[in-house]
Amino acid sequence: MTVERDDAAFAARLLADAVHAVASIARDAGLSLDGYLVLHEAVAAGGIRPTVLGRLLGRSSGSLTPVLDRLAELDLAHRVTNPEDRRSSLVVATDAGVTIVTEAREKQAAVVRKIAAGLPEDVRRALAATDDDG
Prior knowledge:
Elements: H1 3-28, H2 33-45, H3 50-57, H4 65-73, E1 77-82, E2 85-93, H5 95-117, H6 121-133
Antiparallel strand pairs: 1-2
């Protein structure tokens, strides 16, 4: 096996680990992966239009309706009238939703640290430099 192929396999494993960590966080919160991603975006944006959520997730806003209904049922996020355009709505996280995302981000950070620890030093430096730029 070549070094390039080893690097690609290693990167694929790290990516899979990261995806599994996010899926586990979602399950722990009683959410589907889509539910967690919607909640995360609502918290990050402080309120987000369903059409924007759909674009971010590669889904139609209509296909997110059951996800939004589930978040409302769990009292994690609600649709509210958009104060800038009363014809549209925003998805806004509740305090309980913010708490879930905050705790999940801590878990995600631990996973990222674990993943980063397995990277070669030059790759960690390159990633740190990229983070400093943006």
